[in-house]
Amino acid sequence: MHIVIMGCGRVGSTLAHILEDKGHSVAIIDQSPEAFRRLRSGFRGRRITGFGFDRDVIAEAGIEQASAFVAVSSGDNSNIISARVARETFGVDNVVARIYDPRRAEVYQRLGIPTVATVRWTADQILRRLLPEGAEPLWRDPTGAVVLAELDTGHAWVGEKVAALEEHAGTRVAFLSRMGEALVPERDTVIQDGDIVHIMARADDLERVNAAVAARSGEDA
Asked: If you write DSSP's letter for every residue of 81-123 in order, what string do you get?
């Protein structure tokens, strides 16, 4: 695929290298020529100086042949405008915009522009490390209503079936991490010692799920 990236910061340059290593052609746009110093010397993609929401600039980057457009500059407005130009003017279906303001992310998601709300995501990752107990979000949708969370089941659920956990906690098990590998369980899959349980749930339901699992652990103790 040909992929156009707006923003040659740490994220943009890292994406460019990864995509090129995977065999894709890449064009990267940045308003500052100095930003391209982040690219390795052997980078074969195109470097275009300018603004990603300028039609002539993204046309020079090959947007008409692009399968995807990524906007990861430091400005929310620039990212979303560029993504909309790529989608609405040039017909690129696969667009992603990085947004720092989670409130904006929700609005743009409803407009059909997939977003990554970095502030919310970063805060969630830090909380998972500061407060490892219970279900802390690994991912949440842009509205913040639905989350993927890691659930601390302790030893009380070892030997029990996934169906029993779902029924007791009133939640849905998305997958298990077992010995470093992900496993999509069946209802009769038995939870083993060392398994990490990941659930999909409403954000406002996590406290209840935690309490239900903790109560079972307390009873067994």
From this structure: HHHHIIIIIT---EEEEEES-HHHHHHHHHTT--EEEHHHHHH
Determine which helix (DSSP H) or strand (DSSP E) holds 59, and give its type and residue range: helix 55-60
Structure tokens at 5: 């990236």
The tokens for 55 are 């039609």
Residue whose C-alpha is closest to residue 51's, from 35, 67, 64: 35
In the block, residue with structure tokens 């103790």 = 221
pLDDT bracket for residue 122 (50, 70, 90): low
Task: List the helix and strand counts (H, then E) for the chain.
Answer: 7, 11
Q: Which residues pair with 48 in a beta bridge?
A: 29
Q: Would the pTM count as exceeding 0.70?
A: no
Bridge partners of 95, per DSSP, are 69
Q: How confident is the model at residue 221 (pLDDT cuts 50, 70, 90)?
A: very low
Residue with the two structure tokens 């915009």: 97
List, for residues 194-205, the tens digit of each pLDDT value: 888 999 998 888
Q: Give the closest residue to 76 by CA, choosing from 29, 47, 117.
A: 117
